[in-house]
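Pasting two entries for a bug report.
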Amino acid sequence: MEITLTLHGILRDYMPHQARGKTTLTLSNRTNIEQIIKSLNIKQSVSVAVDGREVEIDYVLQDGDHLHMFCMIAGG
């Protein structure tokens, strides 16, 4: 199956510069978002959305999904 992955903000550093934060991934069935986070070696806390809706990292991806990852920030 194939999904589109878009990394936003500082998370773009986990992809080659020429990718501009967006790529297509070919994955095996039953791949969840946490597995992708681990494979990219992302250590920051992230917020994720699939096809425009916020989901948890245990969400199992489906063919054609568009996954967005955002770095969680805190302020005060």
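Entry 2 (this is the one that rendered wrong in the viewer):
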Amino acid sequence: MQSQPSTNIVFKTIAISVFCCIILLLSKDIGFFWDNTLLCSKMGHYLYNNNLFTLNIPENFDPGHPPTLAFIQALGWQLFGKTLFVSHLIMMPFLFGLVWQLHSFICYFTQNKWHQIIAIAFVFCDPTILAQCFFIGQEVPQLFFFLLALNQLLKGNYILKCAALLCLSICSVRGMMLCGSFFLFEVFYSTTILKKIKLVFTRQNIICYIIASSAAVGFIIWRVVNKGYFLLHENSQWGNLAEFVDFKGFIFNLKVLIHRYLDFGRVAIIVFIAIVFIIYKKKLLKNNNIKLLLAATILSTSIITIVSLAATNTIGHRYFALSFLLMHLLALYVIQTFVAHKKIIILFVLGIVLITGNLWQYPQRYAQGWDASLRSLPYFNLRKQAIVYLHSHHISPKNVGTFFPNIYSNEEVNLSGDSSSFTAFDSTNNYVLYANIYNQKPEQYQYILSNYTPIKHFENLGIWVEVLKRK
């Protein structure tokens, strides 16, 4: 007779596999998007066409990140073929690992199976977290490795914790920051929860962090020695996009950061947690699980937060996906522990507000995080329709001006075999391909309308792509 733990593992494996298959089938035609077009596809193409094992990315598109995910993509293309389906398939082991580790972390707080299932579902109601499952990018691997390290910390497994942090540190520069934040959380956990600060500085743990940071340190040293800089250089196309801000810029960044946490329905979670903390502050702060979740929510992305507040153009929604995930678990634990009545109603309302955050769309004069919810999904098919229209009317992409993130080649976006690309708009283009997800200022679009005539409009669910011709 099969044991209960074995049955649970089989059921867990099947359930997570089904979830991953559903995501794969729904996302298989979604192209590379936003920054991940560069970080995964453009860099991946360079490795695929040249040398899988080089770190020397050409300066004109070198973002300063380790080309880890680009390498995984390029390797997958060589083994299984260069298609969008393969690219999404490559992400599924990371998604599987993320859900598995999320469930394991939830088990630390409750053994009730229905509560565990509800918690997982609630986390994936968050538009930003769910969107990362549909897009090919760094966030899912980083969430997986961080949660893996967190679970090993709670279990006291130094070897797996070291391996998880090592992998996390080479995902990206933000992965390196998450490792630093993990150390800060471990200090808090050892000091406040276990009340044994000496555990952080044992010989075993020090060796763990030395090994875990070795690849990242080696990458940084290699860049400084071979390129003369770590991240960006003055001639880089992003050289002026990541500068230190003055006090006014700091206040602006702080407002943007607050907005990121409130956006796409998370305002309901923030308000709920704030109200409960006001009512039950003393009881909450005496609960070790509450302290653990609250500290994890704040500290998990603390270094990313500091950097984001101090520099320009560094506050993307998805950068804080880990904090959002932990914040939702905190809200659930608070509901379960301190809300005496109407738990189901509160949970249902919060879940509905979160999932409908995917429908949020701001007026065009406001920039939106299009890679941080499912709101942008219609764009991919609309873009394909516009390209078909241009081809059918024999309009060369070289004569078409456009904007980020549409400046990459069709091959880099869709792996379509079409290496042609549009040009960055400079007001001399004969045609313009424009979409309302490009986050251009309203004056820019008005300028285009003043000088160009719309000749074809494609629209679906409030997302539109337009082809315009010079007057």
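Dev reply: Rendering is fixed now. As a check, the viewer should reflect this: The longest helix spans residues 203-227.
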